[in-house]
Amino acid sequence: MQPAPVTKYRPFPPVSLPNRQWPNRTLRQAPIWCSVDLRDGNQALAQPMSVEEKLEYFELLVKIGFKEIEVGFPSASQIEFDFCRRLIEERRIPADVSIQILCQCREELITRSIEALRGAKNAIFHLYNSTSPAQRKHVFNATRADIVRIATQGTTWVKQHSRALVAAGTRMRFQYSPESFTSTELDFALEICEAVTDVWQPTVEDKIILNLPATVEYATPNVHADQIEWMSTHLTRRDCTLISLHTHNDRGTGVAATELAMLAGADRVEGTLFGNGERTGNLDIVTVALNLYTHGIHPGLDFSDINGIREVYERCTRLEVPVRQPYAGELVFTAFSGSHQDAINKSWAVQRSDEPWDVLYIPIDPADIGRSYRAIIRINSQSGKGGVAYVLEHEFGYALPKLMHKEIGKLINEVADAKGTELTATAIHEIFRREYLDRTTPIALQHFKTTERDSAVSCAASITIDGTSHTLSADGNGPIDAFVRALSATSLPKFEVQSYSEHSLGKGSEAKAVSYIQIKTARNVTLYGAGIDTNIELASIKAIVSALNRALAKA
Fold first, then answer.
1. CATH assignment, 443-554
2. What letter does residue 283 receive in the DSSP assignment?
3. Pairing of strands 512-521, 495-505
4. CATH of region 31-317, choose from 2.30.36.70, 3.40.605.10, 3.20.20.70, 1.20.120.450
5. What is the pTM of this model?
6. How many helices (H) and strands (E) does the chain have?
7. According to the model, what pLDDT value does residue 424 have?
8. How does pLDDT run across 493-529, given as a tens digit for each residue?
């Protein structure tokens, strides 16, 4: 890097827009969406999709709900041409879906593109040419007037050569892109867009699409919004125009630039699933659409099976959705932090289905996009008691008493710290079972039975202590009290029961009872035990034995 002061780069010039309106607006509806996965996205792949993969991907886009899909550049190669023809000839395009093709301002390319669209019911012809000062100087060695002539001549050719297509029944719409719009002087961008519009002669019923691409992202999102608002307010036939966005992500702010530009008046958004595209990528439509959804605006696209969409995307593109990708990434609904886990657990417990979503740290209900709750809280050495309790409850059905959370949380953290890795839900469950449910030393319960006598309960129990058998009996006001009294006749340390809770584990005839009992020893140590059995009475007795075994292990 160059040391300060940095003279190699210069700040992007601001837009003079003293009466800008977009900062005070609120998004209230979704834009028109256009997927460019099959063109912009496909050209950015190290291994472009095969025709069969493109067909599968097209069907995915239709299923999601896209009504405008850019399918390729049919004049650029035979495979692109053949793909467009196959979609049309095999009648794969629903009646309410428009296919969009891209073309440069050359007559032979335009006629070839028109040929590719023959028989389509709804088509968008996307014409473009570069307009920025750098492109004019270094690539075309052309003046502004030369660039305008290229655009208007191309538009004239599209209009002429598409007449037969329209006469045959195709609804043909026209889209023009001043490529590198955000790097072009605004007055020139307006001039060339107005000139193209003059040639095309749109109407309110048949609007022209002016696509204003951030081909390379140079400025902050607010400058992009200013550019879009400036164009929106200076176009002479705004009512006959759809302003379309096509942002890239070179500065990592493609989503923000798009959202602010929508506030600035844009009607339409082009992008790709998960942001695939040249360099740092195109706009991530999934993120913008679900951002709208979390503000109560239905995007008009269905991402309720985001896992299935991701699977097709990854298989066809041979790319991977990053683990931190908004909404779709593997870890975006995962909390490792103990305080976060505790807050999630508590807020989720009181979340009602008839109230607005308000679960801490999770801005969208994962179920709305087909994500499972299973991976929301994962455990490592940074995790807390609430997270462990969450995993045991949501994965295995144990509703641990609040005071027990600290015990099991500390134990799990010690194991995770020693291993230095994340613990799976299965590993957590095994540790829980080993610590609470499967302890048989030094005390093991062999037999337990109660009988009621008047207002008291008598118990008869058989246990082993360090391998030695003991037969016990006592009376009490219930099974737990009777068993505690019976144990007092042995050499085991004295204790008293502090709390007791139980619940069913599972449903139907296979359900079991699980009991949690907290004891306090003569040394003022409190700890929990847990027991499981098909008989709720035996589950509570096993919980006492579990607590005693844990107390003796600690001693």
1. 3.30.160.270
2. -
3. antiparallel
4. 3.20.20.70
5. 0.77
6. 18, 14
7. 84
8. 999 999 999 999 988 878 899 999 999 999 899 999 9
